[in-house]
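Re: the request from the purification team.
They wanted to know what the chain is likely to look like in 3D before they choose a buffer screen. I agreed to run a prediction and write the result into the notebook, where they can find it.
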Amino acid sequence: MLNKTRTAIFGGTFNPIHNGHLSIAKCIMESGLTDELWLLVTPRNPWKEGKELIDDNIRLDMAAKATAHIPGVYASNYEFNLPIPSYTVNTMKSLVNDYPDREFILVIGADNWSAFNKWKDYEYFLKNHRIIVYPRPGYPITDTLPKGVTVLDMPLLDISSTMVLQKFKEGLPIEHLVPVNVQEELQRMQKFPPFCL
């Protein structure tokens, strides 16, 4: 029997994608823990109900362009065809069903790991999938981790999509926070309303 392709699933609204996301993706690919990484752009996250989001397809396009130079990393619209809000457990079960030749690995931040027991059907992940946790400022991981959970060895990155959009709306520079294509798209959207910020 052939070995399954190890596929890391890094989901999020990517509203917008920023250099922190890209650093995480690169670090995961360099870690040897996976063969591919799919950035699943989420139409609506249950934790972010009511938050205004940039158009789904624009976020997907920005993510695809931003990751085009990273081997093995692909932006995906897989969740666009799943029920909203997007629960990760439903997504993973659907992926397993649609791609039986792949082993799916969940990628989450330390902030999500700290609240993991509040996730819908969180036990499913611990029983069926490996999990990669990347560090986040303010969320130290000190507990003994369950089998199959790995903490990514990388620097703490103090950057968020909320920070990027706030700075952009205030007219502050963001070129050090996002890829060129993202900055250009935000500027284009600002010139041609409606701009959903």
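For the purification team: The mean pLDDT is 91.
Please add any questions underneath this entry.
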